[in-house]
Amino acid sequence: MSNEYEALLTAMKALTQTVDGATVTLPVAEHGWNTRPDAESYGEIQLEFEADALGGDDRKVARAFEGSVDLYSRDRRGGGWVPLIERTLEEQCGAHWMMNHHAHERGTALFHWEWAFQVEE
Question: Can you list the positions of beta strands (E) in the chain?
């Protein structure tokens, strides 16, 4: 597993904010939930595929992997988590991330954001 991905995973699982005087941690699952948590907002993170590789001397000398971070929220603005997630991606991935998707899911009545990122092996 990529050290950069492990650092991003740790940072995402440590996201907190203060809400009404209480410290709240964003529930984050790696590779999806078996059931959706009973939380106002929650996240998912996964490493999905090899995005690029650099070859030399008949072998791969460097590889990059692409993954995604998803935020689901009952709040239209994401419960304050959107800027915290983007700041964490900026700190951990530099310029190698982008918001890929934002929509309201009618079936679940949740707002969904997805960010794609790349990390080195």
Answer: 16-19, 22-25, 28-30, 41-56, 59-73, 97-105, 110-120
Let me know if 107 is exposed, middle or buried by CB neighbors in 10 A (0-12, 13-18, 19+). exposed
> For residue 55, what are the contacts with CB-CB under 8 A and spacing of at least 6?
61
Q: At residue 55, does pLDDT exceed 70?
A: no
- Nearest CA to 97 out of 26, 8, 7 is that of 8
CB of 90 closer than 8 Å to CB of 97 = yes
Task: Output the pLDDT for position 63.
Answer: 75
Place of tokens 């597993």: 1
**Would you say residue 29 has pLDDT above 90?**
yes
Mean pLDDT of the chain: 88
- Which region among 33-42, 94-103, 105-114 has the lowest average model confidence (pLDDT)? 33-42
Number of neighbours of residue 88 by Cβ within 10 angstroms: 19
Q: At what angle do helices 81-93 and 3-13 cross, to 10 degrees?
A: 160
